[in-house]
Amino acid sequence: xxCAACGWFAGxxxxxxxxxxxxxxxxxxxxxxxxxxxxxxxxxxxPLADGRLxxxxxxxxxxxxxxxxxxSGLGHQYDHGAAPSRVVQPRVRALP
Length: 96
Ligand SMILES: [Zn+2]
Ligand SMILES: [Zn+2]
Fold this sequence. Notes:
Blueprint: E1 11-15, E2 27-31, E3 55-59, E4 64-68, H1 74-79
The structure holds zinc ion (2 copies).
The site of one zinc ion has 8 residues, from loops.
């Protein structure tokens, strides 16, 4: 079922073939759409990722259910320069 607001799939699905995290036990998992992504950055107020962290989402392009791990929000912190984004190039010194 697609969310009318954002167009992403949302709702409960029966996972029987290891969808999402590879767990082969038949179970119901909840697919979260973009509107349910409330993980915001404390610094700029922007969303940490496209979808909700630690939740399942349906990737239309891939045609399968994905699990968005919490650490995928870390990339946003790097946008603020929290981690070195540039590789320091070694300087080559000419011999005298
Ligand atoms: Zn939505
Ligand atoms: Zn931010």
